[in-house]
Specification:
Elements (H helix, E strand, L loop, with lengths): L2 E7 L6 H11 L5 E6 L6 H11 L3 E5 L6 H10 L5 E4 L11 H9 L4 E5 L6 E3 L3 H18 L11 E4 H5 L10 H11 L4 E5 L1 E3 L10 H24 L7
Parallel strand pairs: 1-2, 1-4, 2-3, 5-8, 6-9
Antiparallel strand pairs: 4-7, 5-7
Helix pairs in contact: 5-8, 7-8
Length: 241
């Protein structure tokens, strides 16, 4: 099964090399890495270009849309000619060692596999406490209300069948795109599961995520999902792939 790992990177000169090294060290399945330069102004491009000379499976592409996580992810998806695609954050917060397990779940027939910090065995280390509360609350309540197959719907670390991505029109502009994709896949009938993963707060550079800036996007999809669930209870119309 072909696998593409998409790494969005904006001014990640302090972490991108370590992230790519970790991917090459821990991912045993054959794979290609697509690093999306999201309008970086530091040495990110130079570092990735140099690593690509020693690792032919690493490809650098550029986000030609407006800067932003959602546009960077969309650019990476466009360059991901593979059966399965997984975004990995460029700041080394995600655990590449989880990727082989995620791919095995895709091979078992699942369509979306979520790396979950809140599944049994999952760990979330570091990060702002308010952000931790927010993601836990969103994940648990959406899981209980909608029946989606993950307790960590807001985490960006998810593996998708390419056919799932191709079937969804992305509307988000920021990091909430990961929640949008999972929720739209769930309500379209795609099979979703989760595997435990370890998430580390950023140890290099500065976070570009500001909770109060991104919260409205998450709230939008949170309310959208609850509305879809309520309409489904009132007007059942089963549909599955």
């Amino acid at each position: 099964m072909d696998l593409v790992i998409v790494v969005p990177a904006r001014n990640e000169e302090g972490a991108i090399g370590k992230t790519l090294d970790a991917i090459e060290q821990h991912v045993q399945a054959p794979h290609r890495v697509v690093v999306v330069n999201d309008h970086s102004t530091d040495q990110t491009v130079s570092i990735v270009t140099a690593m690509g000379q020693n690792h032919p499976n690493i490809e650098l592409v550029h986000n030609k849309r407006e800067p932003g996580f959602a546009n960077a992810i969309a650019t990476g998806f466009e360059h991901a000619a593979a059966d399965a695609v997984v975004p990995v954050m460029g700041d080394l917060c995600d655990a590449p060692a989880t990727i082989d397990l995620m791919l095995s779940k895709i091979a078992d027939g699942y369509d979306v596999v979520c790396g979950s910090r809140y599944a049994p065995g999952g760990v979330k280390m570091g990060g702002p406490r308010l952000q931790d509360f927010f993601s836990r609350f969103v994940g648990l309540t959406i899981w209980l209300i909608t029946g989606i197959g993950t307790r960590d719907v807001s985490n960006a670390f998810k593996m998708y069948r390419k056919s799932v991505i191709d079937s969804i029109r992305i509307e988000s502009r920021s990091i909430e795109v990961s929640m949008e994709l999972a929720l739209k896949a769930h309500f379209a009938g795609w099979r979703i599961t989760e595997v435990p993963t370890v998430w580390h707060g950023r140890i290099e550079g500065h976070s570009k995520i500001r909770l109060f800036r991104i919260a409205p996007g998450y709230v939008k999809w949170y309310l959208w999902a609850i509305g879809k669930r309520l309409r489904g209870l009132l007007y059942p119309n089963p549909k599955s792939h």
